[in-house]
Design a protein that fits this description.
The chain is of the alpha/beta class. Helix content is 29%, strand content 19%. A seven-stranded mixed barrel has the order 21-22-23-24-27-26-25, surrounded by four helices. A six-stranded mixed sheet has the order 7-6-3-4-5-20, with helices on one face. A five-stranded parallel sheet has the order 17-16-15-18-19, covered by helices on one side. The radius of gyration is 23 Å and the shape is globular.
Length: 639
């Protein structure tokens, strides 16, 4: 039987388990990446293992999430990351060098290699044929130490693309259409592979837009073939030697297949407050727009920027619109300046921001109260923009530019076609923003610098045989990591200070949660379907751990968050009958007995006011051992 692209890469990196759907496998990791919002904790975890130097082929630390150094906290954390990278063999991408995923596929990504990153949008690397997966910081730390990365063997979904995109319809519209079909839960436990004649019409940046936002499907990863288009991109980056061809076998099998005719696709938008709330732009044209943000790891490539500049050239943005532009990397920024596109954007009235995540992670440029903000980003969760009642829509650069010009939602297909964007044969290469680590001899005496904001890792607990605790919080479906542990300018400076962060846990849902949890001493959370979707941030597990949460019971979990709960020593449990969710009320005293025996048998019983509620688990044997030991770090130490 033939293999898919992902199956070929997994087979070449398999270190444990069998490639049977749903069974746990361990794979060797070639590359890792971190960003500063998750990296500080990941490197504290790596240091705790006592390994002098990373064992991957390439590990890179990026500073892109919180570059606002309004106090000592960020500067201290960035200094810590830089010093730990120099000592332990990790490359360091300085603030302003660019967004991790954009820079990584430009300068470091290699087809056929495995990559995990402590950011949920790491699958961006699938656009050049990598098996790239988002993970928690602890998993990244273990991989840097030479350990395998463990996941349930994914099922395979094939998306066949036919035809060719029409003018002012873009790659963003392709992934929005996939989200419309599959929803934010449709990719859970799957790798999405793109195939068909339409793939040959898509550039690497277009492919990376699609694989980036594949994270919103809940997918383990997304991947494209490595073909002549990939080769041309790597050649333009001065890295043609990194190219290898990759394609699926003709007789490869898939659990699900979808076909999309690119020639029939039209501009789409994800409406508030979910990436799968999709409507055609032409249905929204009566909506006035207050703000437009162009950039993020989804749409900040040179081709995206040049297209927007071409649409705005010689024109002015509407009086009632504020427009921000965030280039994805210094390479993109410098080439925009060199060709005059930057001048066209400035002359049109755009505000040019730093090469960083910025508004996408709630770092500045928040919309006005109740304001409508069109963003070329990947997430529009409630409050993520920094404005709790902000109405955020996810759109393509073309749709964003059209709205900036007219002040209303406008179908870009109704505007003049500016023509195809001519890309240079070679990109402007300048890697001065990336610092190489010290050699092994110099590293022995190098000092790691820690500021006062860096607090110790929260203590984990071996799993008790009996859990008795209050149901501290009951929430509904699709609770995101932004709900659990928000980001934004007020909170991100304290990413290495779990006690302080804990004050904001679940604040979007229930401002009293942190205080009530701390007072109770121990607690249980109950959730609906797809609990923990969104970011890979392990803070959404570490902060509840600090607040005494011992278990989370839900109808279903998002993959990365479930793994992060186990890594932190928190028990993720699933209702055997989803309807039992309705039997539980917040404030009730819950009890789970014979936990150790139930763990072995994959079933437990929850007692609530005399009512027995059966629970199940989706845990590998290794994860059970981790819980008994008190989480991943204690388990790793014991081994």
């Amino acid at each position: 039987m033939g293999q898919t692209i992902a199956e070929k890469i997994i087979a070449a990196h398999l270190v444990s388990g069998e490639m049977k759907t749903g069974e746990e496998i361990g794979i060797r990791i070639d590359q890792t990446l971190t960003q500063d919002a998750t990296g500080t904790m990941a490197y504290l975890e790596f240091e705790s293992m006592g390994i002098p130097r990373v064992k991957t082929e390439r590990s890179v630390a990026y500073v892109d999430h919180n570059t606002l150094q309004s106090g000592f906290e960020n500067a201290d954390d960035h200094r810590y990351i830089q010093s730990v990278c120099a000592k332990h063999g990790i490359y360091y991408s300085r603030p302003g060098n660019g967004i991790c995923h954009q820079v990584h596929y430009e300068r470091f990504g290699i087809p056929g290699k495995t990559l995990i990153g402590s950011d949920s949008h790491t699958p961006t690397g699938g656009g050049i044929g990598m098996l790239a997966i988002g993970a928690g910081g602890m998993d990244v730390a273990v991989a840097m130490g030479g350990g395998a990365y463990y996941i349930p063997m994914p099922r395979m979904i094939r998306v066949t693309l036919t035809g060719e995109l029409r003018p002012n319809v873009s790659a963003k519209d392709i992934i929005l259409e996939v989200l419309r079909i599959l929803t934010v839960k449709g990719g859970v436990g799957a790798i999405v592979e793109y195939a068909g004649e339409g793939v040959k019409t898509l550039t690497v940046p277009q492919r990376c837009t699609i694989t980036n936002m594949g994270a919103e499907l809940g997918a383990t990863s997304s991947i494209f073939p490595s073909d002549e288009m990939t080769r041309a991109f790597l050649k333009a980056e001065g890295r043609e030697e990194d190219w290898v061809p990759l394609s699926s076998d003709a007789d490869a099998t898939y659990a699900q297949e979808i076909e999309i005719n690119l020639s029939e696709l039209e501009p789409l938008a994800a409406c508030p407050h979910s990436p799968d709330n999709i409507k055609a732009v032409k249905e929204l044209t009566d909506i006035k727009v207050d703000q437009v943000c162009i950039g993020s790891c989804t749409n900040s490539s040179l081709s995206d920027m040049l297209k927007v500049a071409a649409m705005l050239k010689g024109k002015k943005i509407a009086d009632g619109v504020s427009l921000s532009i965030s280039p994805g990397s210094r390479q993109v920024f410098s080439m925009m300046a060199e060709c005059g596109a930057l001048t066209d954007l400035i002359d049109a009235g755009a505000r040019v921001l730093e090469c960083a995540c910025g508004p996408c992670i709630g770092m500045g440029f928040s919309p006005n109260s109740g304001g409508v903000s069109l963003r070329t980003f990947n997430r529009n969760f409630l409050g993520r923009s920094g404005t709790k009642d902000g109405q955020v829509y996810l759109v393509s650069p073309e749709t964003a530019a059209a709205a900036a010009l007219t002040g209303y939602f406008t179908d870009p297909m109704t505007l003049e076609d500016t023509g195809a964007i001519e890309m240079p044969e070679a990109f402007r290469i300048n890697d001065s923003g990336v610092l190489a680590p010290l050699d092994e001899e110099a590293a022995k005496t190098a000092e790691v610098l820690k500021g006062p904001n860096i607090k110790p890792f929260p203590n984990t607990h071996p799993l008790e045989d009996e859990i008795k605790a209050e149901l501290i919080l009951k929430v509904g479906d699709n609770i995101t990591t932004d709900h659990i542990m928000p980001a934004g300018a007020k909170i991100l400076p304290y990413r290495s200070n779990i006690p302080y962060l804990s004050k904001f846990c679940f604040a979007v849902v229930d401002e009293s949660f942190a205080e009530r949890a701390e007072a109770a001493g121990s607690g249980i959370i109950v959730g609906g379907s797809n609990y923990g979707q969104g970011s890979s941030r392990e803070h959404a597990a570490l902060v509840p751990l600090h607040l005494g949460i011992r278990a989370v019971v839900a109808k279903s979990f998002a993959r990365i968050h479930a793994a992060n709960l186990v890594n932190a020593g928190i028990l993720p449990l699933i209702f055997a009958d989803p309807d039992d969710y309705d039997k539980l009320e917040q404030g009730a005293t819950l009890e789970i007995k014979d936990v150790h025996k139930g763990l072995k048998e994959d079933k437990l019983v929850l007692l609530a006011n005399g009512v027995e509620i059966p629970l199940r688990m989706e845990l590998a044997e290794r994860q059970k051992e981790m819980l008994l030991a008190g989480g991943l770090l204690k388990y790793t130490a014991s081994k």
